[in-house]
């Protein structure tokens, strides 16, 4: 299918239109009195708090009895999303070309020159027009893939999760709209990233609700753009012939034309009106989807990033512990080397030595105690035990009161002398032993901590893998950038824990993503 006219849907949703929308004009602010006259709708704005990270802009009051539609717009900065939002509101108001008026709910941000001037906050438009048969909620995401980078896109995903969690109004979705310029003949790297980002936000059940809104169209079928989108394997709604469903829009409705360009103005108006009519027919009949799976996908994506971050921190801790353990082992080795040989010091040592007496006089000495028990004055020569210092065969003088048989009598006595000897430095030895004991204790503690960290790493690797596994089941895009950004790291860690089956599963995801990229590049280079 190359044209949306072949889609058979219900009639357009506007049931009643006030002449020239007088009531809405009265409640609006004139921006420019041109052709058409541009009016700013009076809206109620709810600025976000930090916990919500989104804001609301409400026009009118919601009718709980009325059918309610919710659409999400996603596209690269500068694709004309803002003009498209304004076109939806004018369509719902029943504005016709001949009315020569144009309502705007916000300025056309695509005219701003700096991407940094764009807000990174999701805007939720509640459009409640009494004359329309539908109430409409438009979730407008900031420009994906702009110069603020991937971190900004992560914040958008978190904001969507917060929106789905905290706002009762956004619990179902009728259409996810990928906005792209119709005159593009190739997808830029940013747009390929946007496709990945969009598909990774949702569950697998939303594919039939994703449609293409092609802006800046001249009315011709955008063959090149559609071919590129097909080759990029975008999962989105198709008709009975498996052709992409898309809607064409021209972004000139709000511009002032001179009278001689009335024909061109009519053509651009009719093209956009037709595209909007067919788009509303589509969302009128398509089966809406609850955001339960989307919430689960967004939550699991967020959980995966937290698990990877935690795993990376754990790996860093392991590397640090290994370094500390290596330093500890080196220090311990050096300490052990310092204790060989055992440290010694010079010590003055007392000792006794037998020397000749100064005269021929004899002395009775204890050979055990090395003491001069009776000297001078010992004249007993018959039997040592008869010496006057002996009593009951025991010496009464020497330190151990030794038996008389341990004594001798001769012309020699014991004399106290000193000498220098090498002795073990007990203090230094004790200090070294204490250092070694402490080093061994530290090494043991580090080894235990390392073992615990390895167990923790194993658990975190498995947790991260299970997140990927779950996303592969519930997410529309199983090889999203969120996963591919960390897949090599996770594969490496799975190899470290020797789990080849899981390594193979991740390698297959990586391989599939590479094949898709190759197909896209081949298409662009034709």
Give a short overview.
The protein has 526 residues and is of the alpha/beta class.
Explain the overall architecture:
This protein is an alpha/beta fold. The protein folds into 3 domains: 14-290, 3-Layer(aba) Sandwich (Rossmann fold), CATH 3.40.50; 308-341 and 427-524; 344-424, no CATH class. It is 41% helix and 20% strand. It has 11 helices and 20 strands. The strands form 6 sheets. It has an 8-stranded mixed sheet with strand order 3-4-7-8-5-10-11-12, sandwiched between helices. It has a 3-stranded mixed sheet with strand order 1-2-6. Helix 5 (223-231) links the parallel strand 11 (210-215) and strand 12. Helix 3 (150-166) packs across helix 7. The longest helix is centred in the last third of the chain and has 49 residues, at 426-474. The protein is rod-shaped.
Give keywords:
single chain; 526 residues; alpha/beta; Rossmann fold; 3 domains; eight-stranded mixed β-sheet; three-stranded mixed β-sheet; 11 helices; 41% helix; disordered C terminus
Strand order, biggest sheet? 3-4-7-8-5-10-11-12
Given the helix and strand composition, which structural class is it?
A: alpha/beta
Number of domains: 3
Report the C-alpha radius of gyration, rounded. Answer: 46 Å
Helices and strands, with pairings:
Blueprint: H1 22-26, E1 28-32, E2 37-41, E3 44-46, E4 54-59, E5 67-75, H2 81-93, E6 101-104, E7 122-127, E8 134-140, H3 150-166, E9 172-173, E10 175-181, H4 189-201, E11 210-215, H5 223-231, E12 246-248, H6 262-285, E13 289-290, H7 292-338, E14 344-356, E15 363-366, E16 371-374, E17 390-391, E18 394-395, E19 407-410, E20 412-424, H8 426-474, H9 481-484, H10 487-496, H11 500-524
Parallel strand pairs: 2-6, 4-7, 5-8, 5-10, 10-11, 11-12
Antiparallel strand pairs: 1-2, 3-4, 7-8, 9-13, 14-20, 15-16, 15-19, 17-18
Helix pairs in contact: 3-7, 7-8, 10-11
């Amino acid at each position: 299918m190359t044209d949306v006219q072949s889609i058979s849907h219900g009639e357009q949703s506007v049931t009643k239109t006030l002449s020239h929308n007088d009531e809405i004009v009265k409640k609006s602010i004139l921006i420019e009195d041109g052709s058409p006259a541009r009016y700013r709708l009076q809206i109620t704005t709810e600025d976000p708090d930090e916990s919500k990270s989104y804001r609301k802009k409400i026009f009118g009051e919601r009718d709980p009895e009325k059918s309610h539609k919710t659409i999400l717009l996603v596209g690269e900065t500068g694709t004309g999303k803002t003009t498209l939002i304004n076109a939806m509101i004018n369509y719902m108001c029943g504005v016709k070309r001949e009315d020569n008026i144009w309502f705007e709910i916000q300025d056309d941000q695509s005219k701003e020159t700096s991407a940094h001037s764009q807000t990174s906050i999701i805007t939720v438009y509640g459009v409640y027009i009494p004359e329309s048969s539908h109430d409409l909620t438009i979730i407008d995401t900031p420009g994906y893939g702009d110069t603020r980078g991937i971190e900004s896109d992560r914040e958008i995903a978190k904001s969507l999760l917060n929106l789905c969690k905290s706002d009762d109004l956004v619990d179902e979705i009728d259409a996810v709209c990928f906005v792209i310029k119709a005159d593009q003949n190739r997808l830029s790297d940013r747009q390929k990233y946007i496709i990945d980002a969009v598909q990774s936000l949702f569950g697998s059940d939303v594919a039939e609700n994703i449609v293409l809104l092609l802006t800046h169209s001249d009315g011709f079928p955008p063959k090149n753009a559609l071919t590129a989108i097909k080759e990029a394997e975008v999962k989105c709604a198709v008709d009975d012939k498996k052709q992409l469903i898309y809607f064409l829009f021209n972004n000139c409705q709000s511009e002032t034309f001179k009278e001689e360009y009335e024909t061109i103005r009519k053509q651009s108006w009719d093209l956009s009106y037709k595209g909007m009519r067919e788009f509303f027919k589509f969302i009128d009949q398509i089966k809406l989807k609850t955001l339960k799976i989307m919430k689960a996908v967004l939550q699991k994506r967020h959980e995966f990033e937290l698990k990877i971050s935690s795993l990376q921190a754990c790996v860093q801790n392991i590397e640090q512990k290994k370094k500390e353990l290596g330093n500890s082992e080196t220090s311990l080795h050096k300490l052990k080397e310092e204790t060989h040989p055992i440290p010694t010091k010079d010590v003055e040592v007392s000792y006794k030595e037998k020397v000749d007496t100064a005269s021929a006089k004899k002395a009775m000495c204890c050979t055990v105690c090395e003491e001069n028990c009776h000297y001078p004055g010992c004249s007993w020569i018959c039997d040592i035990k008869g010496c006057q210092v002996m009593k009951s065969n025991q010496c009464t003088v020497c330190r151990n009161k030794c038996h008389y048989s341990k004594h001798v009598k001769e012309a020699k006595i014991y004399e106290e002398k000193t000498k220098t000897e090498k002795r073990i430095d007990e203090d230094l030895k004790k200090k070294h032993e204490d250092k070694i004991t402490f080093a061994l204790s530290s090494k043991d503690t580090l080894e235990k901590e390392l073992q615990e960290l390895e167990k923790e790493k194993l658990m975190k690797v498995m947790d991260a893998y299970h997140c990927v596994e779950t996303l592969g089941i519930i997410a529309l895009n199983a090889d999203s950038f969120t996963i591919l950004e960390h897949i090599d790291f996770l594969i490496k860690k799975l190899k470290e824990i020797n789990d080849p089956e899981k390594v193979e599963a991740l390698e297959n995801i990586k391989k599939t993503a590479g094949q898709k990229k190759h197909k896209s590049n081949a298409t662009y280079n034709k």
